[in-house]
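Service request form, structural biology core

Requester: graduate student, group of Dr. S.
Request type: structure prediction, single chain
Budget code: on file
Notes: please return the result as structure tokens.

Sequence provided:
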Amino acid sequence: MKALKAIVLCFFITTITFANVAQSEKEALLALYNATQGENWTNTWDLDKPIDSWYGVTLKNNKVVSLDLEFNNLQGNLPQEIGNLTDIKEIRLGFNKLTGTLPQSITNLNDLSVLELYMNRLEGELPQDIGNLTNLTILKLFSNSFTGEIPTSITHLENLKELLLGSNFLTGEIPASIENLKNLEKLSLIDNKLEGYIPVEISALKNLEELVLSSNNLIGSLPYQITDLESLNVIMVSDNNLDTEYVTVTDKSNQPTIMGLPIEEGVATDFDDD
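Core staff response, request fulfilled:
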């Protein structure tokens, strides 16, 4: 009888804990907890308490809409079940120890507007279907070990304001279709293995404020049309194989003037003088 009461009580607690949250979302959260050693997180979850009390989880109308576990000692792979969080809008998992590849299921999260996975140990190629995340405004994947080319579909994300892919091992060329990102304000591809020319199509990004392309294998020259971007105040293109090294000086109106210096003069730095 005591055993039966214990089982009933356990079922009752579990029902309260997961009350009104879809089974698929419960399973996604538990899969993340188990796959990333949740018991060793800096701020762990008490699985016997309601989900809305779990650290970093935000619910709205009994739907998981935000997951913020930055600096929380997550160790392991992101599970495929994360794709079951179909109403989530923000995923912030930066500054952890995540490994493995980015699960393909993450491209099913159509409401996602913020995806931050920077400063981890993720590897492999970026999903070719990443362009499905058409509501993304912020994509921060810098300081991982991603390889392969930048998927062309990433230029379908017309709502993007920040695209930060620096400090990975990305190869190939910067896609000319980047001109589709009309709302882009920050573009950082620093410290990769990108080749080819800096596409003149970047000059179509009228809202661009920061352009950071240093430490790649880019060739040719910085397209002069980029100097027409009125919002641009940070330009970094040093440590490439360009015909000219560039120094950027901001004038009193906070507009950058780009000066090309011959390679043989040995100037290899960019700076933005506030």
